[in-house]
Design brief:
The chain has helices at 2-11, 27-31, 36-47, 51-59, 62-72, 80-89, 95-103, 112-117. With 119 residues, it is an all-alpha fold. Helix 3 crosses helix 4. The longest helix is centred in the middle third of the chain and has 12 residues, at 36-47. The chain is globular and about 40 Å long.
């Protein structure tokens, strides 16, 4: 979500005075666009009825959710109520934004200009 934060901050300098980026993507990833053919390949993989289904069976497992939650969302370990709630929300209908995000669509372009505006 760092690209979203950079866009909001650069467009609203009187409202957002600074931005702290604490998790992926790295600065280098933020200023380097992912080639469109790579984005398409990634997205098609995640949408695939075979490979995508397999990937999501892993991504939606409680252990993987716990791992990524602990790495990127919480300062302490996430609790079982968080994991229970995430499991309730797992569905095929919830996958499209996750597929787009994991395919790298948020990095379809460089955000160097936005980052320079807020520094």
């Amino acid at each position: 979500l760092a690209p979203v934060g950079a866009m909001i901050a650069s467009r609203n300098p009187s409202t957002v005075s600074s931005l702290i980026l604490t998790s992926p993507p790295t600065y280098k990833d933020m200023v380097t666009a992912v080639p469109s053919n790579e984005l398409e390949k990634n997205y098609n993989f995640l949408k695939s009825p075979i490979f995508g289904k397999f990937a999501f069976s892993i991504l939606e497992s409680r252990g993987i959710i716990e791992f990524f939650s602990n790495q990127f969302l919480f300062s302490e370990k996430c609790d079982s109520s968080w994991l229970d709630e995430t499991e309730k929300e797992i569905s095929d209908e919830a996958r499209p934004p996750i597929q787009a995000f994991n395919a790298g669509l948020m990095q379809h372009r460089s955000f160097e200009n936005e980052l320079k505006q807020i520094t």
